[in-house]
């Protein structure tokens, strides 16, 4: 009788498998889940996902990898995809055999991004992911099998731009690493990741921090602020108004361009009264750090908003001609035209004091930061105004206040400085005073 017993016992749990069960099960057998999926546990403890499926009238078994590299959720997704292919007349077994022959990097990028792009917060980030891989990696890595890509291949992609476009190159390296990591988990390649930094590319390329100084966004010199602000005031158009608002609030371009009217609370402010309580509340979904951010609006910023027209059917405060969001280039173009006009008149224009390059919109945040430091405003308050993280995670957990009222006074002083007013900061303790 014992000779007739199957070598593997079949275990049928009362409910579907759990991730915890998959991690801890040790008794040999077959443990079924659904969609023909089961976990096979061998006598030596080895585990493998297997799917029983009918393909074009023939019953087959497909191996789907092993835990923990392929967790329960991934195994279920693969089983469901295979079942769908088979129902539509496809052959997932043949597809698997073809995959074993090799996946090219370009195909790996497509497959990886199909699954991962939905995790990114905004459309610009999604486009940047695809754009950097298509522009720099695809010409060299695209046609190569992921299993054949070496460290030298990755270096061929990175070295031409590592010193000239350091930030872009560093992000590109991470994206190549992610794609190849997915390819390894999916069974298309094995071994170390050739795009890994630590203990790998770090031995062949200089650290990004050592060569990235030239990547800093050119800032406006404090000495040029007043005349630049007067110059900007002469500019017409929605993009110029958006640039004024961006400067008054020290916000990022994307935050301003995507601003909607339901984020604004002007309080009791009108054009004839003080806008002391006006606030712009930016939701977490639109912030780079993924956290909501409140911006106290100085009087001039509130008055600018109150003077803007509203376009029916468009939620945007600073809308494009067709009602959509302004492009990033539209605001940058205003500064480029201002610089060009200065150069045409024989003036050097508005150059970054260090790099001698023309200032750009994002550099205005550095100008604000320098101004706040020189005026003696607390570092944390200035960093909060820029929506930067301050301190460690523990410190941030205890620091619940965003210093809104104190920042309101600071932003009012900043607005005055832009307009050329001499502002006295009363709440600063001067260090090193003679005793």
Automatic annotation (TrEMBL):
Tell me which SUPFAM superfamilies the record gives: DNA breaking-rejoining enzymes
**Pfam families on file:** Arm-DNA-bind_3, Phage_int_M, Phage_integrase
Q: Which GO terms describe its biological process?
A: DNA integration; DNA recombination
Where the record annotates domain Core-binding (CB), the positions are: 103-184
Which keywords accompany this UniProt record? DNA integration, DNA recombination, DNA-binding
The protein's matches in PROSITE patterns, at most eight in alphabetical order, are given as: CB (PS51900), TYR_RECOMBINASE (PS51898)
- InterPro entries membership: CB (IPR044068), DNA_brk_join_enz (IPR011010), Integrase-like_cat_sf (IPR013762), Integrase_catalytic (IPR002104), Integrase_DNA-bd_sf (IPR038488), Integrase_DNA_bind_dom (IPR025166), Integrase_recombinase_N (IPR010998), Phage_int_M (IPR053876)
Residues covered by the Tyr recombinase domain: 215-411
**UniProt-recorded Gene Ontology molecular function terms:** DNA binding
Does the record carry Kinase as a key word? no
Concerning PANTHER family, the annotation shows: PROPHAGE INTEGRASE, PROPHAGE INTEGRASE INTS-RELATED
Family in the record: Belongs to the 'phage' integrase family.
Protein name in the entry: Prophage integrase IntA
Q: Which organism is it from?
A: Roseinatronobacter ekhonensis
Provide the organism lineage as a comma list.
Bacteria, Pseudomonadati, Pseudomonadota, Alphaproteobacteria, Rhodobacterales
């Amino acid at each position: 009788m014992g000779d007739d017993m199957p070598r593997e016992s079949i275990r049928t749990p009362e409910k579907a498998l759990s991730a915890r069960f998959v991690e801890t099960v040790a008794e040999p057998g077959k443990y079924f889940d659904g969609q023909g999926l089961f976990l096979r546990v061998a006598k030596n403890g080895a585990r493998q996902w297997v799917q029983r499926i009918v393909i074009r009238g023939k019953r087959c078994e497909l191996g789907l990898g092993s835990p923990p590299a392929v967790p329960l959720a991934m195994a279920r997704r693969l089983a469901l995809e295979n079942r769908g292919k088979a129902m539509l007349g496809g052959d997932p077994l043949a597809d698997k055999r073809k995959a074993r022959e090799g996946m090219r990097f370009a195909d790996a990028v497509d497959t990886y991004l199909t699954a991962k792009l939905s995790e990114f917060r905004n459309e610009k980030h999604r486009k940047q992911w695809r754009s950097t891989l298509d522009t720099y990696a695809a010409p060299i890595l695209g046609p190569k099998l992921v299993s054949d890509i070496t460290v030298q291949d990755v270096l061929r992609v990175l070295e031409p731009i590592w010193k000239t476009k350091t930030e872009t190159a560093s992000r590109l390296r991470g994206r190549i690493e992610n794609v190849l990591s997915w390819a390894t988990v999916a069974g298309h390649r094995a071994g170390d990741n050739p795009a890994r930094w630590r203990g790998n590319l770090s031995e062949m390329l200089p650290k990004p921090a050592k060569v990235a100084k030239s990547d800093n966004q050119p800032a406006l010199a404090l000495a040029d602020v007043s005349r630049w602000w007067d110059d900007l005031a002469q500019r017409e158009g929605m993009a110029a108004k958006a640039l004024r608002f961006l400067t008054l609030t020290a916000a990022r371009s994307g935050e301003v361009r995507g601003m909607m009217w339901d984020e604004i609370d002007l309080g009791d402010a009108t054009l004839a009264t003080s806008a002391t309580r006006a606030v712009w509340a930016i939701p977490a979904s639109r912030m780079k750090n993924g956290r909501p951010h409140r911006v106290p609006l100085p009087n001039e910023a509130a008055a600018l908003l109150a003077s803007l027209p509203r376009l029916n059917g468009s939620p945007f405060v600073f809308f494009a001609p067709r009602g959509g969001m302004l492009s990033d280039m539209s605001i940058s173009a205003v500064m480029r035209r201002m610089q060009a006009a200065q150069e045409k008149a024989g003036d050097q224009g508005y150059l970054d004091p260090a790099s001698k390059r023309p200032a750009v919109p994002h550099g205005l945040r550095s100008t604000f930061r320098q101004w706040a430091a020189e005026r003696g405003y607390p570092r944390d308050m200035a960093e909060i105004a820029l929506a930067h993280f301050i301190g460690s995670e523990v410190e941030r957990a205890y620091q619940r206040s965003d210093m809104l009222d104190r920042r309101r006074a600071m932003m009012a002083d900043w607005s005055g400085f832009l307009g050329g007013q001499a502002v006295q900061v009363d709440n600063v303790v001067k260090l090193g005073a003679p005793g």
